[in-house]
Amino acid sequence: MNPIRRSTLPHGLRVVTEHVPGARAFNVGIFVGVGSRDEGPGEHGCSHFLEHVLFKGTPTRSAEQISAEVERFGGDLNAYTTREYTCFHARVLNDQADRSVDVLTDMLAHSLVRPADVVVEREVILDEIAMHDDDPSEVAIEGAIACLFAGTTLAPQVIGSSTSIRRMSTRRVRDYWRRCYTSDRMVVSAVGDLDHDELCARLNTFDAELAGLGSAADRRVDPPVSSHPVRVRSNDLSQTSVVLAFPAFGALDPRREALALLAVALGGGMSSRLFQEVRERRALAYTIDCSEAAWSDAGFITIDWQALPERTAEIMDVVRGIVADVRGHGITADELEAARGQLVGQTILHFENPSSRMSRHGAAELAGDARSLDELLQTYHAVGLDEVNALAAKVLSQVPVVSMAGAAAPRGAAHRLRHHWVGPQFTR
Questions:
Q1: Which residue ranges form the domains of the chain, and what is each CATH number?
Q2: What is the pLDDT of residues 338-357, one digit of tens each?
């Protein structure tokens, strides 16, 4: 097992590294514990806006130079924003490790954030919003999150809205950056043939430059279950994307691994119950999936599919029957072992990729999850059948929210479909 080391620098910057002897690639990311959940009034989309404008230039590097310094040696540089953190990351040849760290720290500490940059990136983000709006699967899942967590900081989409982005000023973006991008909110994660102590020494100046006054108070509150159970967005498309979402629990909840196994057994692959019945036996949809996701204090499990709109009611009825059976009788021991093998294998294969390990180390450090990969796998092996089935009875007893996009049914029809979810199959 490659050694993983952690350090905290004087002003709060955390550094986590994995040494891979002989590795020819160096993966590094700076994880900032600030996402869309941290945005106040008038700031919707600010976290994502920063992800864009911090690439636009510093006193010593133009936007072109920022990209060229990494790309000229075959590397890549990118960023992404979530509801709870933002990540700026690079993948380069190992002999370019210092250069990639210099570029990333320069961007995060010294970006100019000029009015002209904000004007340009505003148009790019508006185009990005339009692109997302054209993806019915994404619209449906965002609709499900908005339904489940209405009235909480989880509900707004990370990217911002057309209205909020048009109103975003340079001063607001700059103030948000200076207020939120502090050393105590950041983790630097790196994987490669590296020296942990040397990297920490290199980051000391960055740590001091972004020294803050201490972490803000915890922003988490347990979100209420929404009173907005249906969302429909119709477009002139051939298929309907449907998401059924049940509220669950946070990322570090001890039931999380059992929920993951339940999702795999229910609809996590071609051998799952949902896929076999909906796709293989009835040919109602090309694919159907079940998955789970979580933030620090809340999560959900979803069932989603894409199909011709006239098949929506029949698929809903089939799904309702399968969910009722699993809720009432549980999954079998064979299904659990198959799900366990699939989940363990997928996890191992996913983290064979050094970039994935870098991402996991950084996000886990922000979340306070110090488990190694082996410890995570052990938790999957420790989950018993009774635990999964008790969880299924609890989580699947809830009536899901329904989100549709694409060639969707009228809102009234969607409400009727959800209303019909509750029937004899769900009577205790």
A1: 4-209 (3.30.830.10), 230-426 (3.30.830.10)
A2: 999 999 999 999 999 999 99
The model's pTM: 0.93
Q: Length of the chain, please?
A: 428
What CA–CA distance (Å, rounded) separates 225 from 298?
10
Q: Are strands 25-32 and 186-192 parallel, antiparallel or unpaired?
A: antiparallel
Rg over CA atoms, the chain = 23
Q: Is the pLDDT of residue 14 over 90?
A: yes
The DSSP 8-state label assigned to residue 213 in this structure reads: S
d(CA 250, CA 260): 12
Mean pLDDT within 382-398:
96
- For residue 242, give both structure tokens: 């449907």
- Whether 31 contacts 80, CB under 8 Å: no
| CA 21, chain centre distance (Å) | 30
The catalytic residue positions are 51
Quote the CA–CA distance of 327 and 426 in Å, as a whole number. Answer: 8
How much of the chain, in percent, has pLDDT values that exceed 70? 94
